[in-house]
Amino acid sequence: MNIIDELSWRGLINQQSDEEGLKELVESKDISLYCGMDPTGDSMHIGHLLPFMTLERFGKFGHHPYIVIGGATGSIGDPSGKKSERPMQTMDQVNHNVKALSDQANKIFTGFTMVNNYDWTHQIGILDFLRDYGKLFNVNTMLNKEIISSRLEVGISFTEFTYQILQSLDFLTLYREHNVQLQVGGGDQWGNLTAGLDLIHKAEGQEAKVYALTIPLLLKSDGTKFGKTAGGAVWLDPKKTSPYEFYQFWFNQDDKDVVNLLKKFTFLSKEQIDDLEQSVKTAPEKRLAQKTLAQEVTKFVHGEEALKTAEKITEVLFSGEIQELTTDEVAEAFHGVPSAEISVDPINLVDLLIATNVDKSKRQAREDIQNGAIRINGERLTDTTLEINPKDSFDGKYIVIRRGKKKYFLATIK
């Protein structure tokens, strides 16, 4: 099986500029290819995983992937998928994000070459840009691209209008300097990708063998967009989305979606995924497919140790043995749960529940305690007169409160 057949089986191909030509090319030799990423933030999210994991799949088949960090294009703003102009970032912010994303990509992905399009763009003067590149773009053609046409009603600045030219210049530069023949991108990038093909053919001749391939927009079985939670994006930065939260995101996927996600987000073989698909049908209660998905993606993004921590937290929360967690693990496990600050002084249990907004009244707090609904650091407490000493748990930094079976609250000690 060649890489194109592999991507097709995994459902990772949306559009191709020349299906037969690309398949013939990758079967005849190892090629160089690239995907770009603009530094609009200082972390990737799971929406970035598919294109860059696709590059890594090419690498495993012997091809040579490049990642382009958009130090230049990111300072302009991609109009694709936006209903209005992006806020312009300062160059200091762009450079900060470039470094953060580069460091992150180097930790996660392997076997690629990273380049920054600012390196070949900032030296081009305005007259050279217009004469050497602008002359090769037909405005009517650009206006017909969906990324531009979708913005015409509300308006688009000349700055964002030129984004398509700058991205095309990336492809041309990589083709000339590194013999890059394929650009990979998300489905919304098709207009930009094909503009790059057009530029290369005009600049280098129609015989230039260059191709474009997009990855489909990933939807859940209910038709909604994949990758969002109630709290927003699922980040690859462990400070924004902890490895435990990341693990839980994948573990909680629906039976209807999990096999599709295993194909796209793991490097498991067809035989392994077929076995997991069978387990979904015969023993769905074991959630073996979901557990495997969570393990594989968490390990890929965060590493083996972070996976072990995420699994330990998962097991401890299921058993209720909170005291088995370390202080750092408590911070990770309860990141994002309702929390409140309390002083370091001993506090009555009833007052603690009020101070942390577990209960709204002392009467309700007493009832919850007496009914056995309250656990402090995993221990069920039923005495309303008890005093809790914050210094006694988790290095004097946290108190974990559970009300009922699933509602957790965190007291942070000042």
TrEMBL record:
Keywords annotated in UniProt: Aminoacyl-tRNA synthetase, ATP-binding, Cytoplasm, Ligase, Nucleotide-binding, Protein biosynthesis, RNA-binding
Cellular component aspect of the GO annotation: cytosol
Keyword RNA-binding among record annotations: yes
The EC number(s) this enzyme carries: 6.1.1.1
Residue positions of motif 'KMSKS' region: 225-229
GO biological process, one term: tyrosyl-tRNA aminoacylation
Residue sites binding ATP per the record: K228
Domain RNA-binding S4: 348-409
Protein family according to the UniProt entry: Belongs to the class-I aminoacyl-tRNA synthetase family. TyrS type 1 subfamily.
Stated role: Catalyzes the attachment of tyrosine to tRNA(Tyr) in a two-step reaction: tyrosine is first activated by ATP to form Tyr-AMP and then transferred to the acceptor end of tRNA(Tyr).
Name of this protein: Tyrosine--tRNA ligase
Organism: Companilactobacillus nuruki
Lineage, broadest ranks: Bacteria, Bacillati, Bacillota, Bacilli, Lactobacillales
Encoding gene per record: tyrS
